[in-house]
Amino acid sequence: MSLIGDNGDDGFVFYIIGKIAVAVIVLKMVWMVCRFVFCHDISKLYKTNLKKKYGGWAVVTGSTDGIGKAYAHELAESGLNIVLISRTLVKLDEVAQEIRVKHNVEVEVIQADFSNGRMIYDHIADKVSKKDVGILVNNVGVFATPSKFENITEDEIWNQIIVNVASVPAMSKMVLPGMLARKRGLIVNVGSLSAVAPFPYFQVYAATKAFVRSFSKGLEFEYRGTGVDVQTVLPGVVATNMAAWNKAFSKPSLSVPTPTKFARDAVATIGYASETAGYWNHEMQLMLAGILPEWVATRSAEYLIR
């Protein structure tokens, strides 16, 4: 006896289920295309007034090189004053002067080595608490060259966890009360495309970025309707020092943007997306990763490394 029905009813039911499945896939793809256009085309035509919406100061961690430095410049271009946080004072002073001259905004620096862990945050809080912080960009991160787990040193493991993981909730906790009191603010947490699936040979780094993604999405849901926004940014490969392990990634290309190009695109998505890859080409990669089975994404990552 058929559990579904006699006289071919079971075939009809499976036919309907198949139609519904196809419809769901088509609708999902249409939604993804519409979202892509909204985030990466419409956003450039109608940019969010960041200073008016969020406040006068932006704090950027890991801000003397790469994506962090480019974010600082892009936010300063929008008229925000900038607090730069990084570990090398000479570089901090150089970038601060660049931004002052180019964008005519106030810039302050905080020297802090995030690999030192909890001990640095009181010092940062003492400086940051005096500011009307409208935007926090949690960008600081460390990276190890691709390797099998057995060959990674304990120092490399702890460094990635302390910097990439702990800094995000610690800095968010620092600025959130003030943002809630003012009923406006934005926390941007920079993760990585490697967060969306297990990533062989970058297993610790990818796992730390998976934490950033999960934490950010949880925070975003918690504070909806408060005036405080949380955005997760999941870049692919950007032509920075972190990509120097592979010569093919060191030169800018259609799929490997410069930090400036990446930050310009990513900042434009603020107000348009709670999660984005930032750069349009990386967004396509993120969309593909969302469609493909996890094992395909993981195999593709392994092939990329090898």
What can you tell me about this protein's structure?
The protein has 306 residues and is an alpha/beta fold. The protein is 54% helix and 12% strand. It contains eleven helices and seven strands. It has a seven-stranded parallel sheet, with helices on both faces. Helix 3 packs parallel to helix 4 (89-103) and helix 6 packs parallel to helix 7. The longest helix is centred in the first third of the chain and has 37 residues, at 9-45. 39% of the residues are buried. Mean pLDDT is 89; it is low at 1-5.
Detail the topology: elements first, then pairings:
Elements: H1 9-45, H2 50-54, E1 57-61, H3 66-77, E2 81-86, H4 89-103, E3 107-111, H5 121-128, E4 133-138, H6 154-182, E5 185-190, H7 203-222, E6 228-233, H8 247-250, H9 259-268, E7 275-276, H10 280-291, H11 294-305
Parallel strand pairs: 1-2, 1-4, 2-3, 4-5, 5-6, 6-7
